[in-house]
């Protein structure tokens, strides 16, 4: 079989498994990303996400993660919820749409394992590893390199006709394939994400200070929330979708078809008073399989109290 045939089989199977797009790039050193990542770390834009400092070389070279790596297969999985499944705008605290249903790590890992098993069945013995946002892999850089979109001013990958409400995952394999090329940046002169960010986390176009992002504060930061951020979170208590919600490209977002991403039926009916009275038992029921478990019951409670006590709520 030829490289073209292998590539066709992999992309076809990816589509069958429910992935929205599949792009492939040559497993090589990410030259363009190296100085950018170094600068970002030196300016402490990762805050207390100390894991970002680890495995610097591996983040930039997939051949250090997989012996003999030849190709990075990048995949996008839509998580945009139907209108009727989204939280109401008023009188509630909000969580990021990506956390509505079952934790994406489990859902995507299963699909990737199936894809890798298929490659081994159809093509022969191929060595490789699956990656879902939990290893030193620069997802957006690889997706951009393989033509799945461009990295926007809010540092999210944006895809024409689709927007940015999707997960990115990879298979790094020791098989040579046909490679895709990058596409143009279509942000133009738009600055909606910069203008809308309430904490000023997007310090300049294409640069996000992770340590100022609402998602960082409500998920990654384990300490007390800083008082200078009081009143800036709006009603967000886990993650934040503001820079995606205002992005004009997300008017093209279409509802996902993944049953595992459906929210708990009670989620959209929760009012602020319900959130404030949330018990450990209700938390466990609502978020049993959700990514919200990452912040834990006490972490979520901390976030709710912070937002509840903010000056804008008075």
TrEMBL record:
Binding, cob(II)alamin: 59, 133, 154, 157, 168, 215, 240-241
Major site of localization recorded for this protein: cytoplasm
Substrates-to-products reaction catalysed: epoxyqueuosine(34) in tRNA + AH2 = queuosine(34) in tRNA + A + H2O
InterPro entries: 4Fe4S_Fe-S-bd, 4Fe4S_Fe_S_CS, QueG, QueG_DUF1730
Keywords noted in UniProt: 4Fe-4S, Cobalamin, Cobalt, Cytoplasm, Iron, Iron-sulfur, Metal-binding, Oxidoreductase, Queuosine biosynthesis, tRNA processing
Active site: 133 (proton donor)
Required cofactor(s): [4Fe-4S] cluster; cob(II)alamin
Top enzyme category: oxidoreductase
Binding residues annotated for tRNA, in chain numbering: 222
Cofactor note: Binds 2 [4Fe-4S] clusters per monomer.
Entry's Gene Ontology BP terms: tRNA queuosine(34) biosynthetic process
Pfam families attached to this UniProt entry: Fer4_16, QueG_DUF1730
Listed Gene3D superfamilies: 3.30.70.20
Superkingdom to which the source organism belongs: Bacteria
Positions bound to [4Fe-4S] cluster 2: 197, 213, 240, 243
Subunit structure as annotated in this protein's UniProt entry: Monomer.
Function of the molecule: Catalyzes the conversion of epoxyqueuosine (oQ) to queuosine (Q), which is a hypermodified base found in the wobble positions of tRNA(Asp), tRNA(Asn), tRNA(His) and tRNA(Tyr).
This protein's name: Epoxyqueuosine reductase
Source organism per UniProt: Pontibacter akesuensis
């Amino acid at each position: 079989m030829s490289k073209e045939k292998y590539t066709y089989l992999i992309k076809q199977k990816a589509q069958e498994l429910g992935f929205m797009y599949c792009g492939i790039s040559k497993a090589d050193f990410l030259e363009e990303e190296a100085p950018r990542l170094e600068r970002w770390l030196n300016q402490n834009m990762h805050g207390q996400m100390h894991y970002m400092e680890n495995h610097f070389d591996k983040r930039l070279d997939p051949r250090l993660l997989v012996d003999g790596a030849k190709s990075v297969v990048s995949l996008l999985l839509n998580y945009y919820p139907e209108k009727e499944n989204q939280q109401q705008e008023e009188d509630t605290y909000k969580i990021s749409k990506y956390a509505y249903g079952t934790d994406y790590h489990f859902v995507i890992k299963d699909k990737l394992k199936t894809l890798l098993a298929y490659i081994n069945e159809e093509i022969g013995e191929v060595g490789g590893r699956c990656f879902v946002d939990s290893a030193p892999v620069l997802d957006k850089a690889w997706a951009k390199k393989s033509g799945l979109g461009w990295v926007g001013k809010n540092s999210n990958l944006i895809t024409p006709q689709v927007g940015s409400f999707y997960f990115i995952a990879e298979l790094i394999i020791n098989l040579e394939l046909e490679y895709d090329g990058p596409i143009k940046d279509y942000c133009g002169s738009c600055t909606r994400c910069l203008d809308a960010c309430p904490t000023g986390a997007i310090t300049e176009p294409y640069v996000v200070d992770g340590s100022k992002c609402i998602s960082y504060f409500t998920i990654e930061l384990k300490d007390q929330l800083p008082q200078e951020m009081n009143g800036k979170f709006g009603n967000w208590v886990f993650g934040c979708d503001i820079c995606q919600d205002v992005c004009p490209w997300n008017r093209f977002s279409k509802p996902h078809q993944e049953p595992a991403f459906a929210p708990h039926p009670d989620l959209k009916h929760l009012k602020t008073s319900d959130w404030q009275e949330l018990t450990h038992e209700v938390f466990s029921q609502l978020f049993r399989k959700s990514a919200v478990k990452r912040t834990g019951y006490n972490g979520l409670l901390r976030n709710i109290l912070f937002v509840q006590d903010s000056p804008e709520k008075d």
